[in-house]
Design goal:
Length: about 400
């Protein structure tokens, strides 16, 4: 075992369960216009106020008729026309048909539509060349949605798939939960803002950019508090500001270094639920509270920060936001095509590239360098290769579990 494979670390599944058992959804509900609802979580079931379609209409360009009339003849007289938005103002009588367009209201008396390609037209005399069944090519009232149906349930996040559905029902406003507010900052004297020259021993602060991007993808409002130096007084000031948010996310400062003060301040002002988990990358992850704010302390290494935020904080924020329909990223079985180095002791979230081979089987290869500071591995990857805590190295040809990146990574 290596120095990072400390016995007795909390398994990832246990850590996530502890987080989700403690966090409760926010209760604040507001009303927003439909156009402003994208990405928000519904606080109530949305029931349809109307039938969709609200009237029987044609699924084709063709002719509306009474199917019984074709039992004795194949030719009917066209008595009028029905257009979308301009219906035929009359009754389809025996022996008649009505020219009709896609989406147009079915005339009273008609029960079937025959598409125009299956007719011969001679002035107003229409001969029908195909046999059809009663009701063919007709969309009945409520064919898609019935009045009173729950069309989008409470706890769903509104996406591009729901927007046109809700608009088709004439729903102008939505009851939604407010977005969680998440404060975040990076810690470390070695960090410099991008765009400034580096001096000896300094690196650019990349974590805040990845953290902000993911938090916004998770549907949160963010408070970027910048880079906080390794100074207890400055850290206390940042913590005071951050406790106005629902959640505080930090990167760095929860390790065991002499200048890692974040954990010390949490011991003074808050409560740490757990610290250190059996996860690679990401062992020094801390979870707890400070005043009335949830605290998630991410490791300082960039890949570790991204992986723990994605694996542990994402489902927590989903629950906090009321997103009860949240689904974890999809997992599949795949065949390894390269060696995956690993030692037992921690669940490993290696970065991989999966694809379908010529036989339609899922295969996965490593992105190469799996170091917690090698962020190019995240750029190249399209999945995590999830290697079980007690598993050792994986040889080519062995089966592994992969976790496809969800929308937050794209």
């Amino acid at each position: 075992m290596g120095c990072c494979d400390t016995p007795g670390l909390m398994p990832v599944e246990t850590a996530l369960t502890k987080i989700l058992d403690q966090v409760e959804p926010l209760k604040d509900v507001t009303s927003v216009s439909l156009s402003d609802g994208m990405g928000l979580v519904l606080a109530e079931d949305i029931c349809s106020p109307i039938n969709v379609p609200p009237f029987a209409n044609s699924a084709m360009d063709g002719y509306a008729l009474r199917i019984a009339d074709l039992e004795s003849t194949d030719t009917l007289r066209m008595a009028g026309k029905s257009f979308a938005g301009i219906p035929y103002d009359g009754v389809c009588q025996p022996g008649e048909c009505i020219r009709i367009m896609t989406g147009a209201q079915m005339p009273e008396g008609a029960d079937t539509v025959i598409m125009q390609e299956e007719t011969d037209v001679d002035g107003d005399n229409i001969r029908f060349t195909a046999k059809v069944s009663h009701g063919e090519n007709v969309r009945p009232i409520g064919d898609d949605v019935h009045q009173g149906d729950v069309v989008v349930a409470k706890g769903n996040r509104i996406t591009a798939r729901e927007m046109p559905l809700l608009a088709s029902l004439g729903i102008a406003t939505l009851p939604v939960y407010r977005r969680p507010v998440v404060a975040f900052f990076s810690t470390g004297d070695e960090l410099r803002p991008v765009g400034e020259p580096l001096e000896a021993g300094q690196i650019y602060d990349s974590n805040r950019y990845g953290i902000r991007a993911l938090l916004e993808k998770f549907g949160c409002d963010v408070m970027d508090l910048g880079i906080i130096p390794d100074c207890p007084e400055k850290l206390r000031e940042a913590f005071d500001i951050a406790t106005t948010a629902d959640v505080l996310v930090t990167s760095g400062g929860v390790s065991v270094g002499e200048a890692d003060y974040t954990k010390d301040i949490l011991d003074e002002q808050g409560e740490i639920g757990f610290w250190k988990i059996a996860m690679k990358p990401g062992k020094p992850f801390a979870f707890g509270t400070i005043k009335n704010t949830w605290f998630c302390g991410l490791p300082g290494n960039p890949v570790s920060a991204m992986v723990t935020l994605y694996q542990l904080v994402q489902p927590m924020l989903a629950k906090l936001s009321g997103h009860s329909q949240y689904q974890p990223p999809q997992r599949l079985k795949a065949k390894a095509t390269t060696l995956f180095k690993k030692r037992p002791g921690r669940a490993d979230y290696q970065r991989g590239i999966y694809q379908l081979n010529s036989e339609g089987q899922v295969e996965v290869a490593t992105t190469g360098n799996q170091g917690s500071g090698a962020f190019s591995s995240m750029h190249q990857a399209n999945c995590f290769v999830v290697l079980e805590q007690e598993r050792g190295r994986v040889m080519p040809g062995e089966e592994v579990t992969i976790e496809l990146f969800n929308h937050a990574m794209y």
